[in-house]
Amino acid sequence: MNEFELIRRYFERPAPSALLGVGDDAALLRVSDNKVLAVSTDMLVCGVHFFADADPYSLGHKTLAVNLSDMAAMGAVPRWATLSIAMPEADEAWLEKFSSGFFALADVHDVSLVGGDTTRGPLNLCVTIMGEVDADLALKRSGAKAGDEIWVSGNLGDAALALAHLKGNIVLEQEAFLACANALHKPDPRVALGQSLCGIASSAIDISDGLLSDLGHVLAASGVGAVLDFWSIPVSEIMRKHIDQEIAKRFILTGGDDYELCFTVPASRHSDVLEIGVPLACIGRIVQGTGCIVMDGAERLAVESGGYDHFR
């Protein structure tokens, strides 16, 4: 099977939302009236972002999910994606499962694959995703203001807990590991939530590198500080069993791979957030100044603020 047969068999599908999709030198796309294009790229590298023996169906899902999470953080409607794959060999069984996982999630969000590339090399997956959003309503990192509330979606830390188990850093019972593993291998991007936050949230970001790290980007872009209440951060029952351990606190605050949304909202819009209808938690407030303080009851929690960094 050569490169072009590989593309035709596993990745060439109709792209009704594009003027021209896979199969030409470039895709042709038409953005809807009064919308702007939101574009994001993420790369997943074997041995860095996933293990070599990762389930290919789940890997296909996650490859797209991490990009959809970026669209969610902007409040954008995802529409098109390109996929580039480097792989040591054309493993047909692996490709069948990977592409099935990728397209299953793409179908949920009505995303068309409109191009990409394949080449021989160490396993490496790269997606560029494109979506549409009203320029005046796009969620950004730079809009947080003193007095705003800080909210997060879902539960934090489970993906880091599962990864620590796989690396042998902690030991979970099999049932507990399986409960956490889905958060690591098949994250659910908060696309609908992001769109619901347009016109309500003052800033937003997806939590990919850890809560403190990603919230820190919002604080830096907005020129503000933050105070968090550690015990208001939502966690699963599995995490709660480990929460008194310092390592668990690090997973919640800096673990990463959560792909939930962290966003700020003027206090006057508190009730609007509650009406959105998905699990959300208010975990702190924006203050004047810089940096982030995490409170453990009446005491300040000592924790390193850094999340995942590829070059540190």
Task: Write a short abstract of this structure.
This protein is α+β, with helices and mostly antiparallel strands.
List the main descriptive attributes of the protein structure presented here:
alpha+beta, 60s Ribosomal Protein L30, Chain: A, 11 strands, 2 domains
CATH topology call of the largest domain:
Phosphoribosyl-aminoimidazole Synthetase, Chain A, domain 2
CATH class assignment of the largest domain:
Alpha Beta
Q: Which stretches are poorly predicted, pLDDT < 50 over at least 5 residues?
A: 308-312
Percent range of helical residues: 25-40%
**Shape label:** globular
Structural class designation: alpha+beta
Q: In this structure, how is the largest beta sheet organized? A: 7 strands, mixed
The CATH architecture term of the largest domain is Alpha-Beta Complex
Share of β-strand residues? 15-25%
Which radius of gyration do the C-alpha atoms yield? 20 Å
Total tally of structural domains: 2
Mean pLDDT level: 90
H and E order:
HEHEHEEEHHHEHEHHEHEEE
Distance between the termini: 40 Å
Q: Could you tell me the number of beta strands?
A: 11
Q: Helix count?
A: 10
In the CATH hierarchy, what is the superfamily of the largest domain?
A: PurM-like C-terminal domain
Q: Which strand order do you get reading across the main beta sheet?
A: 6-8-5-9-7-10-11
